[in-house]
Amino acid sequence: SNDGCYTGSLGNMTRWLGEQAEALGVMVFPGFPAAEVIIGEDGAVAGVITQDMGVAADGEHKGDFQPGMEIHAKYTLFAEGARGHLTKRMKSKYDLEADCQPQVYGLGIKEIWDIDPDKHVPGRVIHTQGWPLSESESWGGGFLYHQAGNQIAIGFVTALDYRNPYVSPYQEFQRWKQHPAIREYLEGGKRVAYGARAINEGGWQSVPKLAFPGGVLIGCAAGFVNVPRIKGSHTAIKSGMLAAEAAAAAIARGEEKTALMEYDVAVRDSWIATELKLVQNAQPAVAKFGGDMGTIVAGIDMWLRYLKMPILPAFKHHRDSEMTERADLFQPIAYPKPDGVISFDRLTNVAYSYTNHAENQPVHLIVNDMELQK
Question: Are residues 176 and 245 in the same domain?
């Protein structure tokens, strides 16, 4: 049930939180991504280095070049979201995933629409599952949230363990919007924003060791997403609170750059663990048994866990990359052309993400082995 929950703009909320933090004396560096982790001689995390600014595509320094800043800290909290590049390095360096299942992912694509006020019902939440991904024997689902100001947030998540390499999460989202139950809200409206992000779908069994010398993982960097509810902001906030409390207590004891194992214990003793354990078989059940039967199995398992009568073990995962099969075993999917009213081409939508890039800057996506792309 979504009773008692709220819908709203996470962007607006984080901007407000940033203002509150700065009022308390916290220094916020928006637009300065962390590029490297500072590792001390003792092997502990000692802070981060921000990305160099003003670098040309060929690596040469432009006239506005600024070297990255070293930011030193007694404790560093990694909150990069799913698949953060520094988090991946920390997982590898400190072997944080030695005792958990591999993380699996979904790709969430989202649009914000201004809609006809007569169709707007503040607080209404709609979740869907199955079509159109069911046609390719893939899995995922959509959401539609009625927010303030006659706006809706609409999106679609595709699990990245699909077998058919011709599946396009973006195109599946555009198809989904054409369903009569979704299209009725969009007709007469206007798309005003677009975005996308990776989502952790591994569940509780994919949560790694959370603390290591000088640092901890919080939020989606740790994988605290409730998959069937498509929610993770609440667990991210709670994990940040628990990490802050553990770090503050350690600093008060005169410690620094230690492994905050009390944070790891606090998370596993909190409602984060209770909530995620109830739904830990949701994604792997669908991956194992398919959309229809998997949903039934996952539902039964959730209720039995809620009643404290679990009969199924925690299911294991296969890495998403292990599930993709050869393209010559499938026919290309003939996706419909966008109509420019309800569905849109990808390049046009990217313009509505309001992402700013300099033309003359280094390419940040590098393919290491082009042979794998044939």
Answer: no
Containing 278, the helix (H) or strand (E) segment is: helix 271-278
Residue 176's nearest CA partner among 105, 104, 111, 82 is 111
Q: How far apart are CA 21 and CA 86, in angstroms?
A: 24
Q: How many Cβ atoms are within 10 Å of 196's Cβ, its own excluded?
A: 19
Amino acid at 51: Q
Backbone angles phi, psi at 128, to 5 degrees: -130, 165
Helix (H) or strand (E) holding 64: strand 61-66
Q: Which residue has the tokens 């960097």?
A: 221
**Full-model pTM:** 0.90
The Cα–Cα gap between 301 and 315 comes to: 11
Eight-class DSSP state of 268: H
First-to-last alpha carbon distance for the chain, in angstroms, is: 46
Specify whether the CB–CB gap between 183 and 341 falls below 8 A.
Answer: no
DSSP β-ladder status, 105-114 and 215-217: unpaired
Rounded distance between C-alpha atoms, residue 59 and residue 74, angstroms: 32
Q: Please report the pLDDT score of residue 1 as a whole number.
A: 63
Report yes or no: 107 and 198 within 8 Å, Cβ to Cβ.
yes
CATH, residue 45? 3.50.50.60
pLDDT, the chain, mean: 93
> Number of structural domains, the chain?
3
